[in-house]
Amino acid sequence: MKAPVWVLICNPENRRQHLFSQALFAQYAVQPILVSYDALLEGASVREVLESALKSTTASHINIKIESPGESFLVEKRLIQLGVQSFSERLTPQCAANLPYDKGLFRYLKEWFLGFSDVLHKIELFFTGYAREKEATVHYLNHPEVIMQFMDKHDCQQILQNKGANIPELINHCVDFKQFEVQLRAKKICQVFVKARFGSSASGVMALRLKPNSQQLIARTTLSMGGRRGEPLYNSLKVKTYSNFGDVAYLYSAIMAEEGYVERWVPKPSLSEGGFDFRVVVIAGQAQHTVARCSKTPMSNLHLGNLRGDIQQHPQADVILAAVHQEAERVGKAFPKAHCFGADLNSYDKCMTSGRS
Amino acid sequence: MAIYDYIKTFYGLNIEAFDHKKGIQNSNLAIRLEVGYDDAEDGLEMLAVLNALANDDKSGQIRALIIGVWQEAYEESIQPFIDFLVKNNSQFTSLTAIFFAEMTMEDNEISWIQQGDYSALWAAYPKLTHLQIRGAEGLSFGDIQGASLKTLIVETGGLAAEVLQQIADAQWPELEHLELWLGDENYGWNGSIKDVQPLLSAEKFPQLKHLSLKNSEIQDDITVQVISSDLMSQLSVLDLSMGLMTDDGAEALLADKSKTEGLDVLDVSENYLSDAMSMKLSDLAKTVKVQEQKIPDGDEDDEYRYVSVSE
Predict the structure, then answer these.
(1) Is the N or C terminus of chain A more exposed, i.e. has fewer CB atoms within 10 Å?
(2) Which positions of chain B have pLDDT values less than 70?
(3) What CATH number is given for B9-221+230-240 in this structure?
(4) ipTM, two decimals
């Protein structure tokens, strides 16, 4: 079998590139054609950069993997600059160009998303044209369209809902926190997740709980405000707890500024290591790899210091895993252009999809 | 911080999650009742589960019972379940250990658990040896006749001085293990060191071996008072963890090393001790726990310190 040609769009210095390239070499003894986000965003057009990268290729079949552009401040800044071209309400192109590096600062998720969407769109346009001109077939591991859907959490949940997947109920919300709180209390909804619309991981996520028949509330979030309202917020690897109304209102408004949305917080069942949910890797429509993620907080993202749990400890492990796999594959059907992705699932007996990556 | 894990054993026993449809499987285990999220959505209520337990053929054999989360636990009180156990005490003739409201942060906030009045429990269960309670809102022990209790544990984010007074007013001839989480004034703690002092008496607790006065805003004051009390000579475990102990308070432990000599365990973990102080404390008892010291939030002008479990 002729070895496939792979184009990998990535930050080449990132471990994701190294790991994928190693795996590809081990399997097919080929190296991918690397295209860096840096180059794609530097000034020359996306078309020129891709043409140049592919000029020595004669393959009639090309596979494309589009990696995360994350973990590079330069790329992040350039994506924000690009996004500002279509949304400049809160950042001038000049300011975007001069953004200082500020590790963990929670800012401009929408601009970033718009910039990333723009690049993805241009990549797709190029390859569509390339396929036509060269009579080649082009296959995306995950299609640009589906990557955009995955990066837009709210859009993603709505697609899942429309396709009949079990998702936590989406809750109507408003920008003003006081009004939102009154609405929740009127509807007797006691606990919700407030999430920034764009991006991945637990950035800009807040678990909010209201005590009925009182004014008390408690929020846990990865956003850190360092003690004072009005100052910028930072992503924290430690989950912070806030119970002051004004603090929570400030955090809420910051998430709403990134087009936040709200969904019901469904409690997680427990293993001895804490509450758990699942990350299931779905490849070509099949649930191929499952990790039970145990968490000491409402956020079970592994990079927040949570543990892998042993689901076999659970008396109903087999039943749970079967339900989780079935639901993950259902998620796969909702996104037919996604061929390799992770689905996050909460496994209470009504198995629910809480996210994707 | 908060409590995230369920206990794995209770009263030295492994735990059976009670299935109200199947009944008690192994009456030699501690039996745990719970109405979780899905069960509550389906309309199940804790009283129905308790009823199933009381009517079980093996109910008279169980020694240890854990009441976990119930429906609407943010607002519904535990009182009906206490009352049920009191009224149906003839069904639970072997029951000697009860844990009321074992909930994690996923289930509820500790300070939101709606506790109750336990004054009728003493007469109904005169052979009770282990009583464990989580949460303090609405908690009252009444006029305690706890002659048989060997272990009393009250885990809270903030305990009212009135409850300390009730404990101090009672006689505890058999009590070996006393554990009180005093907590944060924003979540129910309203006392001072004066409310703790009456508890520090060998006359009141002649059998006490394990003393935990922890998770406290006044951890420094408590440290100073405990170390100079006449209880020290009889203790094997002293637990002053999870609070706001600073190096100033810890100095009291160093002042007279003969005070702590007899301890098997001194636990000062999860406080605000410096590395240097942690080192100095490390030979005060056979085992000294100093791990997970906390760092104040905020900056130098505005430092914030928190007990480990409050919300």
Answers:
(1) N
(2) 146
(3) 3.80.10.10
(4) 0.83
